[in-house]
Amino acid sequence: MTDITHLEEQIAHLTRTVDDLSEIVARQEKELTVLTRRMHLVMEREATREVESGGTVPLADERPPHW
C-alpha cells in the first residue's frame, strides 16, 4: 500500500468519525434544549406552588442563609 493510499484511508476514517460526532453533538444539543425548557417549567411550577401554599418567597429566589 502506498503512503498516499494509506493517508487517504486515514482521512476517510477521520471524516467519518467527525461526521458521526457532529450528529451526536447536534442530537445532544436538541436534548439539552428540551431538558432546559422542562427544568424551567418545573421551577416555575414549584415557585407558583410555594407562593400559593402560603410562602412569601419562592425557594428558587431565596438567598442562602449564609448571605
What does this structure look like?
The model has no long low-confidence stretch (mean pLDDT 88). The N and C termini lie far apart (69 Å). The longest helix is centred in the middle third of the chain and has 50 residues, at 3-52. By secondary structure, the protein is an all-alpha fold. The protein has one helix and no strands.
Which term fits the overall shape? Answer: rod-shaped
Give the helix level as a range of percent: over 70%
The tally of beta strands, per DSSP, is 0
Secondary-structure-based class equals: mainly alpha
Features:
67 residues, rod-shaped
Topology of this structure?
Elements: H1 3-52
Question: Short summary of the structure?
Answer:
By secondary structure, the chain is an all-alpha fold.
